[in-house]
Amino acid sequence: MYKIVRKKQLAENVNEYVVEAPLAALKAQPGQFVILRVDSEGERVPFTIADYDPDKGTVTILVQTVGATTELLSRLNEGDSVADFVGPLGNPTDLTKYDKVLLVGGGIGGAVIHPQAKLLKKIGKPADVVLGARTKSLLLYMDEMQAFAAELYPMTDDGSYGEKGFVTDAVAKLIKSCRYDAVLAVGPLPMMQAVAEVTRPSGIKTIVSMNSVMVDGTGMCGCCRVTVGGERKYACVDGPEFDGHLIDFKEARMRQGFYREQEKEHYCRIRGEIKNG
After folding, report:
1. CA 39, 40, 44 angle in degrees (round to 5)?
2. d(CA 138, CA 136)
3. Cα–Cα distance between 187 and 179 in angstroms, integer?
4. How do residues 165-210 score in pLDDT, each as one tens digit?
5. Phi and psi of 174, rounded to 5°?
6. Residue 134 covered by a domain
7. Per residue in 89-126, pLDDT tens?
8. Is the Cα torsion angle 177, 180, 184, 190 positive or negative in sign?
9. Mean per-residue pLDDT for 257-271?
10. What pLDDT, in 10s, does the model give residues 142-151?
11. How many domains, in total, are found in the chain?
12. Distance between CA 121 and CA 104 in Å, rounded?
């Protein structure tokens, strides 16, 4: 069992969990993920590591309540435990070799770029950061990014904070005025695809995080397969981060919706909106 040592609500239906997982914390690196089960009967669900502390033996994840498992997880509190917490999994993404990096986070994608911003600041190469959300209350990790970013550019769809517009608007402006060696974009598939298209003409290395449906996390089940440069890859063992200019986003978006109706029904049953039997 893995104890939840801290739970904090960051926005509506968005919770941050700090989980006691000493072995995972010892090996974790930016870009990797964990797979957890809420209980022994639960499904295996992946979450990208938002932070880690090897000294305290903790790993931080950010969870948006959107389905059955995340609903069950949302009912747990500090002191409760999850049955399984496996990781770190996937390949870390090393951005330290680049001199000038732009990090782009959309929605809860801000949690994924957080450890990258933290590490780049630590080695003396702070990145520029673009954070985007529908409205001010959904802009996550703003204080942390203020501390770690060279420059922070918040964007909101409704103009309630920062500049009104999409993250792609900020990216388009920034790549005209600054020479970036690499861009890391994390968020919904349409957002990552849009960022990749903005950077494509200039040929800037653009990395995206494919947090796909996963089961075993070892490449055996094939659920997380994605086409990259015409080749079949598996997000759990070959990723989760890939060259955004090579991703077949049309296929990825289609696969993302495969189990939407089943997940919706299961979610409604857990919430009591549909009766069993």
Report:
1. 75
2. 5
3. 23
4. 999 999 999 999 889 999 999 998 999 999 999 999 999 999 999 8
5. -65, -40
6. yes
7. 999 989 999 999 999 999 888 888 999 999 999 999 99
8. positive
9. 48
10. 999 999 999 9
11. 2
12. 16
Beta bridge partners of 209: 241
Write down how long the chain is: 277
Strands (DSSP E) contained in 38-149 are: 45-53, 58-64, 81-82, 84-89, 101-106, 128-133
Q: What's the Cα-to-Cα distance from 185 to each of 24, 78, 79, 81, 189, rounded to whole Å?
A: 24, 31, 34, 32, 10
pTM, to two decimals = 0.85
Q: Is 260 exposed, middle or buried (0-12, 13-18, 19+ CB in 10 A)?
A: exposed
**Residue 109 backbone dihedrals phi, psi, to 5 degrees:** -60, -20
Residue that is last in its domain, among 209, 236, 261 = 209
How is residue 125 written in tokens? 């190469």
219 found inside a domain: no
* d(C-alpha 217, C-alpha 154), whole Å: 33
- Biggest CA–CA distance in the chain, Å, is 61
H or E element at residue 238: helix 235-238
**pLDDT tens track for 26-60:** 999 999 999 999 998 888 888 999 999 999 999 99
> Domain ends where: 41, 67, 89?
89
**Distance of alpha carbon 220 from alpha carbon 129, whole angstroms:** 36
d(C-alpha 225, C-alpha 209), whole Å: 13
Distance CA 130, CA 153 (A): 5
The rounded distance, in Å, linking the Cα atoms of 242 and 91 is: 10
